[in-house]
Design a protein that fits this description.
- The structure is a homodimer.
- Chain A has 12 helices and 12 strands.
- Chain A has about 325 residues and is of the alpha/beta class.
- Chain A has 3 domains: about 1-45, 434 Repressor (Amino-terminal Domain), CATH 1.10.260; about 55-160 and about 295-320, Rossmann fold, CATH 3.40.50; about 160-290, Response regulator (Rossmann fold, 3-Layer(aba) Sandwich), CATH 3.40.50.
- In chain A, helix 11 links the parallel strand 8 (about 240-245) and strand 9.
- In chain A, helix 1 (about 5-10) packs across helix 2 (about 15-25).
- The first copy, chain A, starts with a helix and ends in a 9-residue tail after the last strand.
- In chain A, about 45% of the residues are buried.
- The mean pLDDT of chain A is about 95.
- Chains A and B meet through helix 4, helix 5, strand 2, helix 6 and helix 11 of A and helix 4, helix 5, strand 2, helix 6 and helix 11 of B.
- The structure holds a DNA duplex (16 and 16 nucleotides).
Chain lengths: ~325, ~325
DNA sequence: GTGAAAGCGCTAACAG
DNA sequence: CTGTTAGCGCTTTCAC
């Protein structure tokens, strides 16, 4: 049998209440009883029951983290940030994965709610479904979207400036004379895709260049996808002097295909990724990409979530973390 | 106010108990009341309180997962496996990271116990500390070590055959005439390091080759480490025709240094990694490595943990998942 | 300083 | 088929 407050109370002759006070370091307890009780607790291997405790306390000190795709190091990094701040603040994390499936997302959140999480950090899918939005609006706890948004609930998001990022990528390419760009964009149901597509269009507009025929593919985001997309483009006889990728993982597949097709990077084709994963600097050629502050994103999300937990009246407010185009060896133009 | 069983009971005129039964789909409840109550529950937006429920039930349906280093995709993959099986079995996961710190490991586990987890899956550090072993022996819940072991508690481990893996690497290299091998081994306080070192020695013994002067470095496991180690080795004038790496991440750093030093892989130097991360196939040259069934490891760990949760009498038993040397472009010898 | 009593939301044991 | 009672381990309120 596991030791409880009662066990200790019986063993020391004090009341359950006094034991509880001592173990919570409540004031107005004599030093003597305190050491006595603490000694006994230690001796009996007492482990406080946080579950029982949270039945009476208003907070469970648990948050739910809903990740989209655990096989992508991008999300691992974000969660690391969340984890770090959560630890600082004393929260435990319940974690689940949706694999980009909106109904799994809702299901997970229901499970978390049932476990009485104090708040949620979510990387959501399906930015536009009305039903999905309604689901979130009805949530009884604070929630923050990390790195993505849901239409109509933009306030709840901590974002990285997707428009800026992709605009800077295209501005760079357009300024350097590229006019046929293969744009391997992301899945249609995540908000980053739309945001980056807008960034691209802004670049064309800002430079007064008409986007001729568009070479756009929407991919799921795996290396395979990038590999196949380039093969397809090549087979179809598409011409392009640059490939812009939705993420670094796609870019890896792209580099592979290009290399197999004897196209030299960056001489024949320039390639730019997105996310700046740790691995990207070790690609050959080292991948130029858009650096996203992944860790900071998670850290910030947890920080803001906590503020909303502490103060439910606090109005929500989008934040946009800055991104930065990182030039490495897969690009060669004038910066 | 959140709806509870009581709220629903009052709203429908039934007792709390009846409501509870309906919502748990208990038998012997008339269809009529059942639909009535379920309807009301839906209407009130009732969310069951799993916390309160687990105060009375013997199981909390929560497990604790203690990962070692969340920045390494190896562990993400393992956790993905755990997660998949956990979901199948209906468990929620509490996750924490130790960053290879043994006291953080114990601290995390205490927190998890205090949250009444039904069991633990741990990637432990400090294989040899008596105190650490004692800590685990005293644990009041079932626990499984994934991919590593602690001396004296080997039974609790689901492993991947580290000896076999490293032996096959060295046998390959020795058979192909390599006699000066730079061996970038792992951190001294994780069990895989020792196991793989033994595998290496077995290879020398099996082939009757005396390991001349040893070129062994023990690294923490980051890409930087591999990069610096090769630079150091080169600066010291060490000669080697092959580099064996503790993991693929180290190998990335190694490839980078080699390339910068105009050493051609595999012509001048063969390089072999360990883990077979998704990225490794996209390295240039594509990395030869030892494939470890990461996902299966996690999946299996959760499966076995559940067996022990269901039946606490069940004796623990080490399992060893097979590994396989994968040849790609960073090696060139006869297989 | 310390104790007694109530109750968080739920399930289980017993009753009818 | 349904209700009553007790209690999980803890914290809170109110006493003294």
């Amino acid at each position: 049998m596991r030791a409880t407050l009662k066990t200790i109370a019986e063993a020391t002759g004090f009341s359950i209440n006094t034991v509880s006070r001592v173990l919570r370091n409540d004031r107005r307890i004599s030093n003597e009883t305190s050491t006595l009780i603490k000694g006994k607790a230690e001796e009996l291997g007492y482990i406080p029951d946080a579950i029982a405790s949270s039945m009476r306390k208003p907070k469970s000190m648990t948050i739910g983290v809903v990740s989209a795709d655990s096989s992508n190091p991008f999300f691992s990094e974000v969660i690391r940030g969340v984890s770090e701040k959560a630890e600082e603040l004393g929260y435990q994390m319940l974690i689940g994965n949706t694999e980009e499936n909106a109904s799994k997302e809702e299901h997970l959140i229901r499970l978390f709610l049932s476990r009485k999480v104090d708040g949620l950090i979510v990387m959501p899918t399906s930015e536009k479904e009305e039903k999905h939005k309604a689901f979130y609006s009805a949530l009884p706890v604070p929630y923050i979207f990390a790195g993505r948004y849901i239409e109509g609930l933009e306030d709840h998001s901590i974002l990285h400036s997707d428009e800026d990022g992709e605009r800077s990528v295209f501005e760079y390419l357009l300024r350097n004379g590229h006019r046929s760009i293969l744009y391997l964009s992301g899945p249609e149901n995540v908000s980053n895709t739309g945001a980056r597509d807008r960034g691209m269009e802004e670049a064309f507009r800002a430079l007064g260049i008409a986007a001729e025929k568009k070479n756009i593919f929407h991919l799921a985001g795996h290396a395979e996808d990038g590999y196949k997309a380039v093969n397809t483009a090549l087979n179809r006889g598409m011409e392009f002097s640059a490939v812009v990728c939705f993420n670094d993982i796609i870019a890896m597949g792209v580099l592979k295909s290009l290399s197999e097709n004897d196209l030299s990077v960056p001489d024949d084709v320039e390639v730019i990724g997105y996310d700046n994963l740790m691995f990207s600097q070790f690609m050959k050629p080292a991948l130029s990409t858009v650096d996203v502050p992944k860790h900071r994103l998670g850290y910030k999300a947890m920080e803001v979530l906590n503020e909303h937990i502490e103060n439910p009246e606090l109005p929500y407010r989008t934040e946009n973390l800055p991104v930065r185009l990182v030039f490495r060896d897969s690009t060669a133009g004038k910066r």
